[in-house]
Automatic annotation (TrEMBL), chain B:
It holds the Pfam family CP_ATPgrasp_2. It comes from Rhodopseudomonas palustris (strain DX-1). Residues 71-448 form the Circularly permuted ATP-grasp type domain. The lineage of its organism: Bacteria, Pseudomonadati, Pseudomonadota, Alphaproteobacteria, Hyphomicrobiales. This is Circularly permuted ATP-grasp type 2 domain-containing protein. Gene3D superfamilies: 3.30.1490.270, 3.40.50.11290. InterPro entries: ATP-dep_Glu-Cys_Ligase-2 (IPR051680), CP_ATPgrasp_2 (IPR025841), UCP005522 (IPR016450).
C-alpha cells in the first residue's frame, strides 16, 4: 500500500484513541473534584489532567489558572490546542478523508458522522455539566464505534495492522503518561500514609483507563498502589496495560513483517520493549523508581513510532 | 424568450412517450412523499460525504450539490443517436489532437488559423512530435449537450482535459434505486454501473507497450482540498487502484514509481486529475507542489501513459470548438451527427461587430473559461455588466466567443412550490481505449435550480438529476 495511506491510517487511529483518552481524563477529573474537600485533595486535579494530556505548557501560555472551566475548554473544544478532542476528531476526519479508499464504509460513516455531529451540536463549549457529560459520552461512543467497525469490517491486511499499530502505540503512551503524572501516589505503601484521599485519587487513575472493575476482578482487594501499578504495567490481560499494548504491537508488526517477507528495526525494537516488560516485576520497578521506569518506557515507545515511520511510512 | 421545450411535456401537448410511466407515478405520489425522499437523499449524500468544494468560499469548503429526485429520461432511440454522435465526435477530437501535435494537415489545409493554435496558452509545444500510446489523447471526454426541441441536441462544450461529474452519475443512480425501488420496477432502465470497469479496461489498454501484462494504474489527485476530491477517491475505490498525490510518486531513470510500505512500485498508467500546468514543476509551473518532478521526461520517454494526454486543452478551447463541425468533416469525411451551437468568434472583426451590437441577446464566454465563471448572459444581465463586457471585448476580442441564448429544454423538478420546469443540460462520458470507444447509457444531468436560470454549473449553485436511458 502507499506509504502515505499507511501513515494516514496510523494517525487516524491515534487521533481517535487520543480523543477517547482525553474524554476519560476529563470525566475522571470531574469525579474527583466533585468529592467533598476532605476527599478530593489539594485541588490540583485540573493541573494533573493537563499534565497527563501533555499540554501543560501550551495551556499556561494562554491561561493563568487551571480551573475546571479553563481546562475543560482547553482539552475539549479549544481550537488553539492541537490535541484538543475537537482537533483530534477534525484531524482524524481529514486523515480518513484522504484515505477513504482504505477504509470500510462503516468506518468512514462513523468518523464522518461524528465530524458532522461535532459541527452541528458541539461547535461551542458545553454550557453545563450535563452537556459536557453528553459530549464526553459522544466522544467515547465514537471511539468505540470506530474501533469496533475496524475490528469487524476491515480485511486483515496491512491496512488493518497499520491502523492497529496506531491504536496500541497511542494507548501505551496514554497509560504511561497517566502513571507518570500520578507516580508519586504509587510509591511503596510503607512510605506513604494511605487514606481516603489517596483512595479516590487512585480510583481516578483506574477510571481514566477504564480499569476499575477489572482491578477488583483481578485482585479482589481494596485499592493498593502496588497492585494498581502491576495491573497497568505488567498485567497482560488488561487491554490498556503496557504489557498488553506491547503484545499487540509485536504481533501486528510481525504480521506486517510476514506479509512483506521482511523483518526490520521496528520489529526488533518492539520485541525488545516487550521482553523488558515480560522480565520485570513490581519489586524491581519500585526499587528502580516508578518514575524512571515510566520515563524510559515513554521514550522507548515514541522511538518505536519514529522507527515505524522510517521503515514504512516515509 | 420562447417557451422552452420540456422533456416531459414537449411544448405543452401530451406527455412524451418516455415519460408516460413517470408522469402517472408523479400523479399518484403525494408531494410530501417527494419532499421526504428529497430530505432522505440529502442525508445520504451528506453521510456518504459526496461533496464538492467551492473555491473562495471559506464557509462552505465542502458543499453538497443539490440533488433533485425527479429523473431525466431519454428514450432508446434518442440515446442511440446521441451515442453515435458522441463516438464520432471523440474520434475526431483524438485525430485532431494527433494532427495538431504532428503533421498539422488541418492547418496546412487552411481550415483553422495557425495563431489560434500556436498563440494559445493551452497548446503544449512539449507535445510536438511526441508519440502517445495508440494515438489516444482524450481517454475520458465529458461532452456537454443541450436540447432545444424534440429533434435537436447541440454540443455546448467539449471537456477534453479532466472532466468531472461521473461520480454523481453513479451515486445519483445508487441513491435513486434506494429511494424509489418501485419506480425502477416500473421502468426498464439501462444500467450505468459498469462505468468503472470500462474505465479501468480503457486505461489498461493504453499502457506503454513494454509494461507488464498486468499494468499498474493509479489515479493522481491534487489532494483533499481539490473541488473534485470526492470523485477522485470514489473512482480510485471503484477501480481498485491507488489514489496518489504528487508526493507519493517519484521518477527514477525516467520511470515512475509510487512510494509504498514495501518500497518503490512502478506505475504504468496515470489517470491524472491534475491539470497540465501542475503535473511537473520541472517542465511547467516551477512553483507547483502538486506535481512530480521529472514526470514529463518519463512521459516523453514512453515509460508512462498519462490520461488524458498532455496538451488536450487545445481541443476544449471554446474558440477551437467553433470549428468542430469542420474538424469532424475534415478527419472523418462525415457530417457531424451532433450539432454545434452557432458561435461567433470575437477574434473575427465581422463577428465582433455583430456581437457588440447584440450583447443583450447573447451569451458571451471566455475562450479559456470553465465552471460558468466569467461569462455574460445578455438577456438577464444589467446594463452596467453589459457595458463592462463591451469594454472587455474591445480590449481583448480573442479571449471571447458568443452564442445565442438557447432555449434549453426543461425538466420537471422539485421546488419549494411543488413541481416546476427547470432548465437542464447533459454530460455523458466517453471513454477511449486502444481499440474501442464506449459510452455507458446515461450521464450527468445538471439542472438550474432558479426559475428561468440557464446556469447549471455546480459551482454556481446548480443541481443534478439521475439520467435514465430507457431500454427498448
Amino acid at each position: 500500500m502507499l506509504s502515505r495511506t499507511a501513515e494516514n491510517l496510523f494517525w487516524l487511529s491515534r487521533y481517535v484513541e487520543r480523543a477517547e483518552y482525553l474524554a476519560r481524563t476529563i470525566e475522571a477529573t470531574l469525579r474527583v473534584t466533585a468529592l467533598p474537600n476532605t476527599y478530593s485533595g489539594q485541588g490540583n486535579e485540573w493541573d494533573s489532567a493537563l499534565l497527563t494530556a501533555g499540554v501543560s505548557a501550551s495551556f499556561y501560555a494562554q491561561y493563568d489558572e487551571a480551573n475546571e472551566t479553563n481546562v475543560v475548554e482547553f482539552l475539549s473544544m479549544s481550537a488553539s490546542n492541537p490535541s484538543s478532542i475537537r482537533n483530534c476528531i477534525e484531524a482524524a476526519r481529514l486523515n480518513a478523508r484522504s484515505v477513504r479508499t482504505a477504509l470500510t464504509g462503516v468506518m468512514w460513516d462513523t468518523i464522518n458522522s461524528a465530524w458532522i455531529e461535532l459541527q452541528e451540536n458541539w461547535s461551542k463549549s458545553a454550557k453545563s455539566r450535563e452537556q459536557l457529560t453528553q459530549f464526553l459520552r459522544f466522544v467515547q461512543e465514537t471511539s468505540l464505534r470506530f474501533d469496533g467497525s475496524a475490528y469487524r469490517t476491515m480485511l486483515r491486511n496491512d491496512a488493518y495492522w497499520f491502523s492497529r499499530l496506531g491504536v496500541h502505540l497511542e494507548r501505551a503512551d496514554n497509560t504511561a503518561r497517566i502513571l507518570d503524572v500520578k507516580y508519586h501516589l504509587l510509591l511503596p505503601e510503607e512510605e506513604h500514609v494511605g487514606g481516603p484521599l489517596d483512595y479516590y485519587q487512585w480510583s481516578s487513575i483506574l477510571r481514566s483507563v477504564s480499569a476499575l472493575t477489572a482491578y477488583h476482578w483481578v485482585y479482589r482487594e481494596t485499592l493498593k498502589p502496588w497492585l494498581i501499578a502491576d495491573l497497568l504495567i505488567l498485567n497482560d490481560s488488561l487491554p490498556r496495560s503496557l504489557a498488553s499494548c506491547y503484545g499487540n504491537l509485536v504481533r501486528n508488526l510481525d504480521q506486517i513483517g510476514v506479509a512483506y517477507g521482511r523483518q526490520g528495526p521496528a520489529q526488533r525494537h518492539a520485541r525488545a520493549v516487550r521482553n523488558r516488560l515480560e522480565h520485570s516485576n513490581m519489586e524491581d520497578i519500585f526499587q528502580r523508581g516508578v518514575h524512571e521506569f515510566i520515563q524510559e518506557f515513554i521514550a522507548d515507545n515514541s522511538r518505536l513510532g519514529e522507527i515505524v515511520a522510517k521503515q514504512y511510512l516515509i | 424568450m420562447a417557451v422552452a421545450f420540456d422533456e416531459m411535456n414537449g411544448l405543452g401537448g401530451d406527455v412524451r412517450a418516455a415519460y408516460q410511466e413517470l408522469s402517472r407515478w408523479l400523479g399518484e405520489t403525494p408531494p410530501e412523499a417527494l419532499t421526504n425522499r428529497r430530505q432522505e437523499a440529502e442525508l445520504l449524500f451528506r453521510r456518504i460525504g459526496i461533496t464538492f468544494a467551492v473555491y473562495g468560499d471559506a464557509e462552505a469548503q465542502e458543499r453538497l450539490i443539490p440533488f433533485d429526485v425527479i429523473p431525466r429520461i431519454l428514450s432508446a432511440q434518442e440515446w442511440a443517436r446521441m451515442e453515435l454522435g458522441l463516438k464520432q465526435r471523440v474520434r475526431a477530437l483524438n485525430m485532431f489532437l494527433r494532427d495538431i501535435y504532428h503533421g498539422r494537415d488541418i492547418l496546412r489545409a487552411g481550415l483553422i488559423p495557425d495563431d489560434l493554435i500556436f498563440q494559445n496558452p493551452v497548446f503544449r509545444p512539449e507535445m510536438n512530435g511526441q508519440a502517445v500510446p495508440h494515438d489516444v489523447y482524450v481517454h475520458i471526454a465529458g461532452i456537454d449537450i443541450v436540447r432545444v426541441d424534440d429533434e435537436h441536441f447541440y454540443v455546448l462544450e467539449d471537456n477534453a482535459r479532466t472532466p468531472s461529474g461521473v461520480s454523481y452519475m453513479l451515486e445519483n443512480r445508487e441513491i435513486m434505486m434506494r429511494l424509489f425501488p418501485d419506480l425502477f420496477a416500473r421502468h426498464r432502465i439501462a444500467p450505468v454501473e459498469r462505468y468503472p470497469d470500462e474505465l479501468l479496461t480503457a486505461l489498461r489498454s493504453v499502457a506503454p507497450a513494454h509494461s507488464s501484462s498486468e499494468p499498474t494504474v493509479a489515479l493522481m489527485t491534487p489532494g483533499v482540498f481539490n473541488s473534485a476530491y470526492y470523485e477522485h477517491s470514489f473512482l480510485a475505490d471503484k477501480l481498485g487502484i491507488e489514489l496518489v498525490e504528487g508526493r507519493d510518486l517519484v521518477v527514477k531513470n525516467d520511470e515512475v514509481f509510487m512510494r509504498t510500505t514495501e518500497g518503490l512500485k512502478r506505475v504504468d498508467v496515470i489517470y491524472r486529475r491534475v491539470d497540465d500546468d501542475f503535473i511537473d514543476p520541472l517542465t511547467f509551473r516551477p512553483d507547483s507542489v502538486l506535481g512530480v518532478p521529472g514526470l514529463m521526461s518519463a512521459y516523453r520517454a514512453g515509460n508512462v501513459t498519462l490520461a488524458n494526454a498532455v496538451g488536450t486543452g487545445i481541443a476544449d478551447d471554446k474558440a477551437v470548438y467553433s470549428y468542430m463541425p469542420d474538424i469532424v468533416k475534415f478527419y472523418l469525411g462525415e457530417e457531424p451527427i451532433l450539432k454545434n451551437v452557432p458561435t461567433w468568434r470575437c477574434r473575427e472583426p465581422s463577428d465582433l461587430a455583430y456581437v457588440l451590437d447584440h450583447l443583450s441577446e447573447l451569451v458571451v464566454k471566455e475562450v479559456h473559461g470553465s465552471g460558468g465563471y466569467g461569462m455574460l448572459i445578455g438577456p438577464t444581465a444589467t446594463k452596467a455588466t453589459i457595458e463592462a463586457f463591451r469594454e472587455k471585448l474591445k480590449r481583448e476580442p480573442d479571449g471571447f466567443i458568443a452564442q445565442p441564448t438557447l432555449a434549453l429544454s426543461t425538466c420537471p423538478t422539485c421546488t419549494e412550490s411543488g413541481l416546476a420546469p427547470r432548465h437542464v443540460d447533459l454530460r455523458p462520458f466517453v471513454l477511449t481505449g486502444r481499440d474501442r470507444i464506449t459510452v455507458v447509457p446515461g450521464g450527468l444531468t445538471r439542472v438550474a435550480l432558479q426559475d428561468g436560470s440557464l446556469v447549471v454549473n455546480s459551482s454556481q449553485g446548480g443541481g443534478t438529476k439521475d439520467t435514465w436511458v430507457l431500454d427498448e
